[in-house]
Amino acid sequence: NGNNGGDAGNNGNNGNNGEPDMGMDVPADTTPDTPDDADGGSPCEPQPSPAEFDLTELSVNGSRVLVARPEGRIQGVMLLIHGTGGDARVYYDRVEAALFAHAALQRGMLLVAPESITRGRGAAWELELDGADMANVVATVERVQELGVPENTPLYLVGGSNGGNMVAAIAQVLDPVSVHIFISRARAYTEEGTRVPPTFFVEGRNDSTLPREAPNAPLPFEVYERVVRQGATAEHRYNEPAPVTPGRFTRLRNFTCPQSIAVYRALKGHDGVLDEDDMLVEEWQSSGWMRALPPMAEPHANDIGDQLKELYGEHVPTADFNTEVLDFMLAQ
Predict the structure, then answer these.
(1) How far apart are CA 81 and CA 5, in angstroms?
(2) Would you say 1 and 8 are in contact if contact means Cβ atoms under 8 Å apart?
(3) Start-to-end CA span in the chain (Å)
(4) How many other CB atoms sit within 10 Å of the CB of residue 16?
(5) Strand (E) positions, 69-171?
(6) Model-wide pTM > 0.70
(7) Is the dihedral angle over the CA atoms 63, 197, 126, 101 positive or is it negative?
C-alpha cells in the first residue's frame, strides 16, 4: 500500500491460517452487534476495532510526544516511530497501528510516540546518529523517566517505512531489548559494524513503495537473511494477500456490520476491484473504487483504503502478527 511511511503506526492476513491474530480483546464498546444485514445475504463476522487512547502530551525541544500508560505496572517502554509525513498520532489513530498499540498496552508497555522535527511536511527522519532528530529521541527517553518509570525498565523500538530506518539507527545509539520493523529496509542494518538487536520484520508481499524508492537496494527479507547470517536473532513474516470479507470494515472505529456489508457490496459491484474469490485484482488501486462507496462511507475513505491495501499486502502496517511480534519482543 503506497501510504505514507507513517502508516504504522501505516492490516491483513498472515498467510499462516484463515484467522487474523489481533493479539487483543475486542473492546466492548466498539464491537458491532449486528451479525447479518437485513436480508441475511452477507454474513458479517465482526472484527477487533481499536478503542480510544488516554494520551498525555509532552514537549521535548519543541517537538510533540504522545504517551499512553498501561493500567497496571509498567513492564517496558516502547518507542513508536512514525514514517515519512506521519506524526505522533499515527499509532493511535490509524486502525492497524492502533490495534498493535492496544495490544502492546495490554502487555504493560508505556507507549511513547515522538515526532520528527520535520513531521507532517513529507520529510523523513534524519538518520544521522548525531543529528537533531536523534538527539530529540534520546531526550525523549530521558524525559520519560520523569513519568515514574522504574529504573532499568527495558526499552523496545517499533517503526515502519522510514520509521523503520530510524529505529535501526536508534538501535546504534540506545540499547533496546528488541525491535519491530515493518515495511522497511532497516537501512543501518546493511552497514558494516552496526549493532542488530533481536528484530521482527514484517513485509508486504505486494509492497510497491520500497522497490520504487530504491530499485537496487535490498528488500526487508534480504536484510533479514543477511543479519541472521551474521548471527543476529530475527524473524520475518510476509503480509500475504487475503480476500475482502463483508465484515472486514468493522475494524474501523464505530463501523457497524450493516455499514461494512454495504462497503463490501459496493466494491464487489464495481468493475476492476475484486475477482470472483473476493481477492483484490492487480490494478484495483486505479479502478476508481472510491467513487463506488456509499455516501455514509465517504468520510472513512482513507481508513477503507488502508484496509484494502493491507489485504493486498501493500506498504501499510498489519495487525495480524500482533501476538507473534509481541511474544518475540518480550521474550528477549
Answers:
(1) 10
(2) no
(3) 31
(4) 12
(5) 76-81, 109-114, 155-160
(6) yes
(7) negative
279 alpha-carbon distance from chain centroid:
22
For 156, what's the count of Cα atoms within 13 Å in the CB-facing half-sphere?
Answer: 28
Contact in structure between 155 and 174 (CB atoms under 8 Å)? yes
Specify the residue for cell string 540499547: 175
CA distance 180 to 328: 9
- Distance CA(221)–CA(104), nearest Å, equals 24
Distance of alpha carbon 65 from alpha carbon 88, whole angstroms: 6
pLDDT band at 15 (very low <50, low <70, confident <90, very high): very low
Residue length of the chain: 332
- Pairing assessment for the beta strands 155-160 and 178-182 based on DSSP bridges: parallel
Neighbouring CB atoms inside 10 A of 148's CB total: 9
Place of cell 487512547: 53
Q: How many angstroms separate the CA atoms of 126 and 170, rounded?
A: 11
Q: For Cα atoms 289, 293, 298, give the angle at the middle one, nearest 5 degrees.
A: 115
Secondary structure class of 21 (helix, strand, coil) = strand
The dihedral built from the CA positions of residue 12, 98, 153 and 140, taken in this order, carries a sign that is positive
At a CB cut-off of 8 Å and minimum separation 6, what does 147 contact?
56, 67, 69, 110
Q: What percent of the chain has pLDDT over 90?
A: 80
Residue 51: name the closest of 119, 98, 110, 117 by CA: 98
What grid cell was written down for 190? 546493511
Q: In 3D, which of 195, 187, 239 has the Cα closest to residue 218? A: 187
Residue type, 287: S
State pLDDT tens for residues 83-109: 998 999 999 999 999 999 999 999 999
Beta bridge partners of 274: 280
Instruction: Please check whether residue 284 is in contact with residue 273, taking contact to mean a CB–CB distance below 8 angstroms.
Output: yes
Averaged pLDDT for residues 186-207: 96
